[in-house]
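Handout, page 2. Input:
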Amino acid sequence: MKSSDRILTSHAGSLPRPEDLIELNRRRLDEEDYDQEQYAEELRQATIDVVRRQAETGIDLPNDGEYGHTMGAKVDYGAWWSYSFQRLGGLGLWTDMGHVPSAPAESTIQLSSFPERRDWNLFAEAYADPDSGIAVKAKSRADDPDQPGMSLPVVEGPLTYTGQAEVQRDIANMKAGMEAAGIDHGFLCSVGPGSASRIGNKHYKTDEEFVWACAEVMREEYLEITNAGLMVQIDEPSFAENWDQFDPAPSVEDYRRFTMVRVEALNHALRGIPEELTRFHCCWGSWHGPHVTDIEIKDIVDLLLQINCGSYSFEAANARHDHEWRVWEDVDLPDGKVLVPGVVSHATNVIEHPELVADRIARYANAVGRENVIGGTDCGLGGRVHPMVAWAKLEALSAGAKLATQRLF
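Output:
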């Protein structure tokens, strides 16, 4: 899709879930008794409702809110990723997030554990303070079952894709929502191989072998979605976010070599899929922290454009990256490619004024051409801000796109 006669809108994926669906998901995650038929019907109806609400709000390219990606708590920064644990075979459970087994890296750099992020350590007191308003280091449910967290899986045998029934359910629910809303276009999110490989590994001999194995199994999900005529959004925050997970900080050159392995694996996974049905989502992580150790987009923008997707969604509105629109003044956007910059942010409860949204859209339109810009969100809004705030932000996005259209067309 291109903004041929007006500025179109979309978003990064996750939207607020209804409380009854969250509770059913919690019961499923905790392996409590629940009514499977009730869950299936609740999920289907919730998806229909969220697609219709997006259309009514003015979102041109909606999705299912990622409702098929299980989220069992109101605040959940990891559902975009952890859903894949339920769709892969060959996994066991690993509860010690500080000592996750991993394959030898071919690179001179190797990822640290999640709690050893440089930003988390630099602001350790703030991250550890539950009243600070920023993310607290993740805990395992096995360590403290009363605290939200996750138990990390580890690969114990050859990876397989086992999520065919779940992805077909998500496709059917999304199409039911599109039919009810009277729209023809929609997308579903699917985790990328770089992010999928950020779990424990006791089977694959090297880091590269592990990443490529993830690419092969996740390709099955990409194909299921695009064969159904829907767009697949590859959620791959690790593309930029991995930078913060090396301690000490690597050289930019070493990081680019590490990241290029993941770019090549993803391109292999996308082979033969029409680019117009693919979108790549890049962010620096959705937690509400300082982010002073984020890599700058200027250091990886050329790698981003080597990914064989038709459009690129990325953080562009939050206070750490709002200035980076200038990078695109010096970048030759390849023909046929579209940018979906975030023009409203998940990182603040302040609702962006539509005039500011229009200003942000115009910056990108002037840099790469108005037809090549779709207004988006920095990251998923579901589980990051209050539902009232999330929907108000999408309304501001829609209103800002209309103002931008008046200026640019």
